[in-house]
């Protein structure tokens, strides 16, 4: 069963800039974001599901709070039938093949995993790494590429924001520049700026702008989103045009 907002949802209100330091609070904010943006009510934090115990049995370790919260969130998305609106990758929740690491998620192409090292599972919210396939075929193995986030909770939020293009929303892109970012930062309090990991976010009523700070400068973009429940192309085009006109003053255009 899906739990959703009404067809005409309230305007999005800035949410992610309130990210706290504690692990449970960070996942509570992520769940609030899923409700405000996607209209998906995933329920409260602080619960457990059978997938957690099954994952712990596979790696023969007790998983830390951040990993447990992530698994419960994935279980909720699957239970609500909302997976494809938030993520495009697949469940793994086991040891990364060929690596001493726990997989939080595996890419849809089965060529990349993300997760913490097994040695870090004693930390409440351990660093997250990515792992790329080095052999292919039935028994492929992986190797660690780099640390992608200082905390599992940071990675989870960034990962979901990077997949906003899957959501029911207007999506516009503009070339990024330091001048444009500085102008956006100066627009407060109407525009709330924050940085989560390698992402800079600009939230405002009814929309969000995302900048990937580790992107190649030659192709970096301001990715602008606004929730949209349009059911046909003409309605979407009208919403996109209205959103573009709303963004124009942010770039200093008349």
UniProtKB/TrEMBL annotation:
<protein>
    <submittedName>
        <fullName>Uncharacterized protein</fullName>
    </submittedName>
</protein>
């Amino acid at each position: 069963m899906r739990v959703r907002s009404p067809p005409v949802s309230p305007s999005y209100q800035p949410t992610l800039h309130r990210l706290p330091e504690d692990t449970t609070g960070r996942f509570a904010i992520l769940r609030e974001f899923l409700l405000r943006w996607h209209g998906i009510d995933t329920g409260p934090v602080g619960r457990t599901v059978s997938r957690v115990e099954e994952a712990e049995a596979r790696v023969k370790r007790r998983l830390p709070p951040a990993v447990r919260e992530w698994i419960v969130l994935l279980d909720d998305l699957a239970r609500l039938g909302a997976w494809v609106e938030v993520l495009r990758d697949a469940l793994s929740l086991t040891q990364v093949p060929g690596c001493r690491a726990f997989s939080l998620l595996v890419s849809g192409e089965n060529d990349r995993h993300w997760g913490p090292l097994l040695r870090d599972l004693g930390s409440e919210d351990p660093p997250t790494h990515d792992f790329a396939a080095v052999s292919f075929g039935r028994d492929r193995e992986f190797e660690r590429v780099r640390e992608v986030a200082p905390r599992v909770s940071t990675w989870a939020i960034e990962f979901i924001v990077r997949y906003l293009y899957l959501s029911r929303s207007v999506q516009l892109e503009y070339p990024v520049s330091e001048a444009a970012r500085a102008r956006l930062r100066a627009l407060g309090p109407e525009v709330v700026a924050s940085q989560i990991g390698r992402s800079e976010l600009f939230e405002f009523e009814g929309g969000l702008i995302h900048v990937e700070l580790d992107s190649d400068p030659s192709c970096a973009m301001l990715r602008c989103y606004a929730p949209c429940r349009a059911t046909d192309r003409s309605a979407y085009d009208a919403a996109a045009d209205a959103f573009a006109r709303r963004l124009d003053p942010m770039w200093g255009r008349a």
